[in-house]
Design a protein that fits this description.
Blueprint (H helix, E strand, L loop, with lengths): L5 H6 L4 H26 L29 H5 L14 H21 L17 H5 L3 H25 L7 H16 L19 H21 L5 H14 L1 H17 L7 H4 L2 H11 L1 H6 L12
Helix pairs in contact: 2-4, 2-6, 4-6, 4-12, 6-9, 6-12, 7-8, 7-9, 8-9, 8-10, 9-10, 9-12, 10-12
Amino acid sequence: MSGLPFPEQIAGWPWAEAAVILCAAAWGGILGSFINVVVHRVPRGESVVAAGSRCPACGTPIRPSDNIPVIGWLRLRGRCRCCGIAISPQYPLVEAGCGLAVAALAASELAGGGRWLPGFSDSFPTGIDRLLRGDWRLLLAFAFHAAAVLMVISWCLLDRSGWPVGGGDLLIPLAVAVSLAAAVPEVGPPAALARPLTPTDLGTHGGSLLAAVAGTALGWIWGRCFSATGIRLGLPLLGSVLGWQAVTVLAIVTAVAVWTGPALRVKPRSMQLVLPAAATLWICFWTAWLAIPGPLTTWLPGG
């Protein structure tokens, strides 16, 4: 192995994929910690960047060692080091959830070489080799999908806290998603229509743009069926990222979760977090879901 180029040597190490996944989990936890800050401070009109983390009760700055996602909360046993007030378990749960979501995406897309992504499933090399050989499109797809999932999580948590998330918060992420789908088709959703029905003069970029617009439109229609703002904004965004097939399935899964929430003694505003969880699962096995025989993948256009 010593005669191979350095990237190929790394790819041969048994822990290379594990290192990528663990690094992604750590970054997911850090971003989850930032989401906690946003959810706590924005409804109170406080800046999310002007001051460091501090105890909401006594105002004492939190030590860096106590501010490590999940681990810090466990070390403190869920209480402030200074005043002893209980720290909500929502903080480590959000950090752990974001870490798991980003780690799952990294395992599927980076360590897996995008084998489940429609734009990469038929390409080689596979596995971590693609990442180490500098395929920036794969890294872009991972960052794009992780950002979309984390954005929906933040909207759901803000809505759960009672903060009125407005439709204007959707405009910039939606514009970025649609533009990126048109500029880099491999990162965007699959074709909105079956190949015989797709105008040949659209090209790959036009087809990806059409798919993003169709997913956005259908996501907006589905979103009108829900009262939770996180879902109403999340479905159009995820539709632009994943396409109409995915957003239809995600809307049905989320509707079932919200409907069964009262029976499980879970508030509907908390059940909306099923949406980003289902979106993560869809991305991780994207082409596998599209290959499942059924009404959404066979007799409808684009299946």
